[in-house]
Amino acid sequence: MTYEERLQNVTVLGAAGKMGSGILLLTALEMADLMLKPENKGKAFVLNAMDLSNEGLSGLMQYLRAQVLKMAEKKTVILRKAYHDRRDLIENTDIIEQYINDVVSIVRPTTRIEAAYESNIIFEAVSENKDLKVKIFKEIDANNDHDPWFFTNTSSVPIHILDEEAELNGRVIGFHFYNPPAVQKLVELIWTGQTLDEAKEFAHNYAKNMRKVVVPSNDFAGFIGNGHFMRDALHGITEAEKLSEGMSLPEAIYTVNKVSQDFLIRPMGIFQLIDYVGIDVVRFIMGVMNPFLDKESLHSPLLDRLFDDGVKGGQHSNGSQKDGFLKYEKGRPVAVIDPETKNYIGFDTLAAVEDKIGTTPDAGMVWKKVVRMKEKDPVLLKYYSDMKGMDTLGAKLALAYGKRSNEIGNALVSDGVANNAEDVNTVLLTGFFHAYGPINNFFD
Amino acid sequence: MTKLNKKIYMVAGYNTVSMGTGRSEFHPKKPRPGIEHYIKEAGQKTLEMIGGADNVDECVMGNFMAARFNKQAHLGGFFPIIDEKLQFKPAIRVEGACASGGLALVTAIKNVMSGTSDVVLTMGMEVQNTVKAIYGADVLAGAGWFEKRKDGHAYFFPGQFSDRAGAYYEKYGYDYAREGMGRWFRNAVENARLCPTAQEHENKTPDLDALYKKLKPNGKAFVDNLSVLDCSKVSDGASTIAVVSEEGLKRIGIPVEQAVEVLAFGHKVRDITEDPPNPVEVSCIKATAHEALDSAGINIDDLGTIETHDCFSIAGVLATEALGYAEPGEGAKFVADGNTARDGKIPMNTTGGLIGWGHPTGATGVHMAVTIWEQLTGNAGDAQIEMPADRPYGMTINMGGDDVTVVAIVYKKP
Question: B1 pLDDT exceeds 60?
Fold first, then answer.
């Protein structure tokens, strides 16, 4: 089967979810591009949007229309060429409307898994639950005559486990998008020794057509992205807990968050990032990865406690940030939680802690500026070198943090998760918007 | 030849701010003032200067596409909102795409000539930021023949002028042409910085030439041969001026030193269904401008300043050739050498023109007249140029569509 033939029947499982809906959108756009080619006129392209939630599916179709409209308005110049032979479509508005109809007409929303029985490609974006994924893959494979390929968005379950337990003989690949899939350029591609070559090639082409930056990861729980993030998060939590021996826990959380953002020049502090991804999600991923790790324990009782108390972070359905370790107003963090009482303590009351933390060596070195710099390395080398000469709490924490991040990054290469240092850094730069990768010489 | 049968003046000009993305007050997500706001503001300011609505005999509005941009037609009916004393006075709206403003002026002039009016409140108005640019392009395409829309670019008019630019590049050289067009762009912004109502008034780009060179035309995102810097700004705005007879001037009590005299006008229409006979020539502008100059009894060397229709930088360059300041193909050099800059041989578009000041399509023709009136009567504030004593004439050239309707007017300093 050619690339195009495979893409004539696709199913996305978990299509109404945060990641599933983005994957559905990207797939629908790619399939529509193929469908609009003159040589494909009259061929049916089917994209099943499968989800257990009927409400989710109605919301999904609205979301899809709105997103396709935005894309269409941006690519009208190209669309006018695609619809050149439709003499009845004259104004931009005619063409945009037709395109939306064409894209949406490919999508079949359904709550029935049976729709996947006819598909060549199945994108799976259901819960991070190994047994659930295996069950679904087995069921579909047993009823599907097309020897389908399974593309899983898992961020933590090793692919070979899914392949073995679902008996797929190499027909499963990890295709790990970042959030949100429509915007985030990074995709981690994970395969095993068993993975079919054709499937690898297809995955690469597909990612390329969606203009994604592809980083291959080897088949270890968490892969590269979560391999770093989970350990980095645990380091942050552990540092805060240690600090809380000399100050209150909320002050400690505030301190580590501020240091990881300002001193390490990151887009957001580690606790804000945990809130963004979701305390429940971070805890969950750690839980999925942990059984596969024999040299370390990836577990935080603090995350358990907050989760059990219903403090989860994440987003509301309208995209706004929910409170977690931090409290948010208009999308900005304004207070930090006291895990004992679950009350939030305003940042404006933490002036004493600010003094303890101290200032960075150069107030001009902010993420927004550094991320755009062309020759960063010498500048960062000097910045951290200056920091080594500072005796403040902030400087000490930051240097330890940066060193730990180095270690994590290097271990990902030496453990064989990533093929090389460049891949590790690409994941953090592209997927997490870091200004510099974890593998560097700034903290030596 | 249109010989005027009596003395005609223009006086009491006013421009609202040219609102659009270049202005810091512009907020895409917040509601913006509609046509009523602009009509009232411009109308009231001119009425203040001419002693009130009682002195007005009739009103003329130039507007291109309120029917699509604002879902509103019947614009003549809006004049009474400016002042209750305009109630029951005759009012009309005229249209000629981006030359609607010029047509409003011509209509007012003819009404004064016919004797039905001595004081005509003349307005040009357009509010076009009501739709996203991709849909605005559809609306503006109505200035061309609809039969051609299908095969035109998503951004239809930039596409038309991109083709003209492409033909100019091929005939005379790409880098040569871009230098001229780039200088036209720089002049536009530098002039706009001196005019508080201009859209590019707050433009802070330190090196305009460098920016122009960096932003190369990209056919994938926009059109093949022009970048966004080569294009006029989508704008909301209104301009008003009073067109009056000698009687009218006395009635409103304004001294003749504060008025410009209209010496002549030219008005021509080219077949809209035909492609321009020569893509590197604006033949209708050429014919119309010369008609106006001949009727006025002067030639281009007598002009002190010109407001010309630079909907696109290439149109500015071509206008210099059409007027005769440069031979065919030498317009780019004429502009690149600084001849059309505010301190050049023939200052053009001294408050930014369509590229720097903005192009609220129906208003532009009147905006041009207001600017000439300001320059010739010393009312141009920071943007004031020195009018040489031996060249007391000004000219406006307002074009609709791709060189289809052109109105050219010659004015004399009091």
Answer: no
